[in-house]
Amino acid sequence: MRAYVVSLLKAWWGDAATEDNDFRFDYLPRLTGSHSTYETALAQIDGACKGYFLMGENPAVGSANAKVQRLGMANLEWLVVRDFSLIESATWWKDGPEIETGEMRTEDVGTEVFFFPAAAHTEKSGSFTNTNRTLQWHHAAVEPDGDARSDLWFMYHLGRIIRERLAGSTDERDRPVLDLTWDYPVEGPLDEPSAEAVLAEINGYGPDGAHLSTYDQLKDDGSTSCGCWIYCGVHADGVNQAARRKPGSEQDWIAAEWAWSWPSNRRVLYNRASADPDGEPWSERKALVWWDGERGRWTGHDVPDFKADKAPSYTPPHGARGPDAIAGNDPFILQADGKGWLFAPAGLVDGPMPTHYEPQDSPFDNPLYGHSRNPARQVFSREHNRFHPSGSDPGADVYPYVVTTYRLTEHFTAGGMSRWSPYLAELQPEFFCEVSPELAAERDLEHGGWATIVTARNAVEARVMVTDRMAPLRVQGRTLHQIGLPYHWGPNGYTTGDAANELSAIALDPNVHIQEVKALTADIRPGRRPRGPGLPGLVRAYRRRAGIDQDTGLEV
Amino acid sequence: MGRIAGPLDDVAGDAGHIGHPPRMGFFTDTSVCIGCKACEVACKEWNAIPEDGLTFTGMSYDNTQGLGADTWRHVAFIEQRKPLGLQDPGVEHGSYDAYDGVDVLGMASEAAARGGDGDRGELRWLMASDVCKHCTHAACLDVCPTGSLFRTEYGTVVVQEDICNGCGYCVPACPYGVIDQREDDGRVWKCTMCYDRISDGREPACAKACPTDSIQYGPLDELRERAAARVEQLHDAGVDDARLYGDDPGDGVGGDGAFFLLLDEPEAYGLPPDPVVTTRDLPSMWRHAGVAALTLLGGMAAAYAAGRRR
Fold this sequence. Notes:
heterodimer, A: alpha+beta, three-stranded parallel beta sheet, 12 helices, 20 strands, about 20% helix, about 15% strand, B: alpha+beta, Alpha-Beta Plaits, four-stranded mixed beta sheet, 9 helices, globular
C-alpha cells in the first residue's frame, strides 16, 4: 500500500516529493464531507458549492429530480459545461423549464456559464475502458472542428494557464499546484497534449527512468513513480500495450495481445476458480489457469490471479495473517478469507443479511417488517424534493401507480450524444410512456395520444404507448399498474421532450448513494400538461390533496 | 434479354456477365434479431442517406414504418399474444400474487385473489430487419427505360443514380413496394447490397453492424443451406412456426437474393404472401391486347356491314 501511495505522490509532484517532506502527502486535498453528486447539488442550493465543472454530464435532465439540479446550478458563481452541443445543463438559465413556468427569470440568475465544445472520440487519442477492464486505445483520426477540443487539451491548458498566473507566488497554498509535474509534450496545430505521454506517466518509471512493467516493481522509497498502480504495465517496454491489435485469428481465444487489461493484463479475475481444489481445470474447454506441479507454479492461458508459487495443497499455519492466511484452494484472494461470499458480513451500512424494504414512495406496506422503508436510506426533504405518502397512509392513493424508468437502445443516457444525431433521433423521436391496455382503459389514455404524469416533484407529458409488454401486477390482493418511462429526453436537441427525471426524487441507497428511479409512485391522466404557471400549480394541487408536507415520507 | 419468370440458376450469367463471382445474398434470420436497429443506422451512415422524419408512430418501437427512398433497412417490431417456443413471457400476473411467497411464511395479511384475463398469458415481440429482396426476376429492372437499374456480377440489383431520370416506372413494378422516389430529387433509391463494399471484398454495412448475425451475407447457395438447417433446429426446439420466406427459386419472383427466416405468416411482417414479378404476365397481356384489338376491329367491321344492309 505504501509503495503505491509513494509512487503516486512521485508521479504527481516529482522532485518536490522527497522522503524528508513525506513525499508531499500533505499536498493532497482533504475531504470536507460527502461530495456525492446529489449532496453537491443540494450544497449549491445552500450556497456552499460555488463552482461546477460538467464534463460530458447533463444533470439538468439526467439526474434524479432535474429541477433540484437546475436550481442548484442557478445558485452557482460559475458553471463550466463541456459537451458536443448546447445541452440542457448549458441553457437552463435562458430556456429551461423554470423560465417557461416563470419560477426563474434569466435576469435574476447570477451564475456565469461557460460552454466549451468538446471533441469526439474520433478527434482525439485516448483509451476506452469497459467493465471488462480492457483498455483499448483509439487514435485521433481528424482534428476537431472549430473550437472543439479534447478533455485532455482543456485540463492541460487550464492547468498550464493557472500555473502561469501563480508563477512566483510565495503563498503556501499555491505550492501543490506549482509543484505539480505538468510538463506534457504537445503536438499538432492545436497544441494537443500527448495522450501517450500521460499514459506513460500513469504506467510509471523506475529509478533509471525505464518504463515499469508490473506493480510488483513499485517501491516505497521514492525511487519509482506510478500514476495508478493497477495500470502499471500498460506502457511496459515503452510500448503502448493498450494499442495492440493482433487479430484473433493469430492468437488463442484469451487474445492476450489485443489491447491490455488492468491489472497485469489479466483477462479473468479470480481465475484460480477455473481449476479444481487440486489445481486441475474443471473443464479442459474452459480452462484458464492450472497448477504445474513439476515447475511448482501456476500457469495457463490467462495470467494467473493467484500467488504464482502457492501450491493447491498449501494450508495456512496457525496465526497466519494477510495473503499468507489464504489457502492454496481459496481463489477469491481479495476477500479476507479467500472464499466466495453469498453475502457481505461486514462493510454494509444496512447489512449483513439481504432483506426487503419497500421503495421510498410505494403503494404498499412492507409485508416483512412493521416499517416500510430502509431505515438507513438517505432522504433530503426540501421544497422541491418532497416525498409521497406510502402504503396504507392517507393520501397514498393520490399517486396510485408505479413509475419505472429505463433506457432505449437508440439513445444514450441523458441524450447529449444521441438526441442531436438525426439517425438516432428519427428512430425514437419522442418521449413516450408505456402503459398496459388495462391502465389505458382505467385512465382513458389513447394510444398515440398524450398523457400527463404527476408526482410531488413535477409533472411531465408523454406520448402514450399502450402495450401488452406492460402487465398489471397482482400485489397484496389488488391490481397494481405500472408506467414505463425511458429517461433520455429533454427540451433541447434534434428530438425533444420532457425529462422523466422531473418526476423522480432524491432518495438514495445507504451504501453507494444511488438514486431510486426504478420504482416511484405517480398519477397519470389523459392529455398534455399545463403550460406556464399552471404546471407548478398542478403539482401543488396534487401535493395538497395528498396532504404532503416536509415530514411526509421521512418516517422509517 | 434474360428470362423474366421461373427458376433461373445463373442470374448474373443470364444478364450477360461472363466469369462472374457466385451470386451473393442476405439471409436475415429474424429469430435472433434483437431490434437494436444498428443495421438501419449503419446503412444510413455508409450510404449517406438523409434522415427522413421524426414521427412517433405508436407501432411498438418501429418509428421507421417501412422501406423507402431514404430507408434501405427497416426493422419491424410486432407484438403478438402468441407463445414463442417454450419461453415464459412473464406477462401473466392475473393469477399470481407477488406476495404469495410471503404468505407461505405467514407474514402477509391478505390472501391472493385468483383468476385473470386468459388472453394476456402469452406475449412475443417479433423483430425483423427488412431489405430489398434483389429478386431473381426483378420487375424494377425489367421496366427501367434508361438502363439505370442493372444486374451486377454478384446477381444483385442496383440503381445507377447518375443515369436514373426519375420516370418512376419501377416504383409500381416492385412486388414488395421497396423501390421509391426521393421527394426532393425525383430519382429512385434502394439498397445496393453495398455494391461498393462487396466489390472490395467487404460485407455490406448492415451485416457488418449486426451484433447477433441476424443479418448474414454470403454466397446465396451457402446461405440457403444454412437457413434450411436453422429452420430444422428451431422446429426441434419447439418453434413450430419458423419458416423461410423468399428462398424458393420456384416462387413468383424466381426466389429472392435477400431471403428471411420468419416466425409467422409474411403478412404479419407486412410482406406479401405470394409475390409475383409484375412483368411475368406481359407476354400474355400483349396477346390479350392483340386479341382484343382484333375483336374490336371485327366488331366494327360487322357493325359497319350490318349498317350498310339497313
